[in-house]
Amino acid sequence: MKTRLAGATAALVAGAVASFVAPVAVSSPAAPAPTADGCYSWSKTLSEGASGDDVRNLQIRVAGYPGSGGSLAIDGVFGPGTKDAVVRFQQAYGLPADGVAGESTFAKIYELQDDDCSPVNFDYSELNTCNSDWSGGKLSADEAKANALVTMWKLQAMRHAMGDAAIQVNGGFRSVSCNDSVGGAPNSRHLYGDAADLGAGSQGFCALALQARDHGFGEILGPGYPGHDDHVHVAGGADTWSAPDCGL
């Protein structure tokens, strides 16, 4: 009788232990919480060979890192140029510079952008002092505003390269009527939304004009170029660099 009781007790204890430890043995680590950003969130690591809208959004954010004299295509294709731009972005912010856009790269981008997708140090209102809806230029309102977004990210890269001192933006997009009223060129890049006029700020005109060469601006006009002694004009478009008083 004593033997049967002892055996039964042992069985009960063993069963209790088994029922206690079994859930621990089969449990798995909790998945990390997904990143949620007010503007745009990436759901996967991106590297050379990837394509799609997630690549295009990445290209917008690294458009200011094509290398001196370069320009990064915003085409949604992660090619060698995008990889090089990601490397330069990573180097600029002290991240592992492998050209692969992963958690640390996206975390830095989230830190740098506002909920409307503009970089934290620039605002759409600075790039459009003409009207409120981006209409009346050479492109649709949506295209003009999209071009202004890329310009702001180039300026953000330029600002960081110059010690994060504020860059003064005096204007950007113009409708045809706004452009005519200030005597702008008939095919000014301002009409396309991808131009900005910069004040001297703390850096000075020449420092701004020379720095702009490294951040994807194909058109740079400054002191010494007719009508540009009081500002530096930076824009997309074909390569036209002219600021004679600055040695450019």
From TrEMBL:
Pfam families with a match to the protein in the record: Peptidase_M15_3, PG_binding_1
Signal peptide start and end residues: 1-30
Sorted UniProt keywords: Signal
Every Peptidoglycan binding-like domain range: 51-109
Record domain Peptidase M15A C-terminal: where: 121-235
Keyword Calcium set for record: no
Record's protein name: Peptidase M15
Record organism: Saccharopolyspora terrae
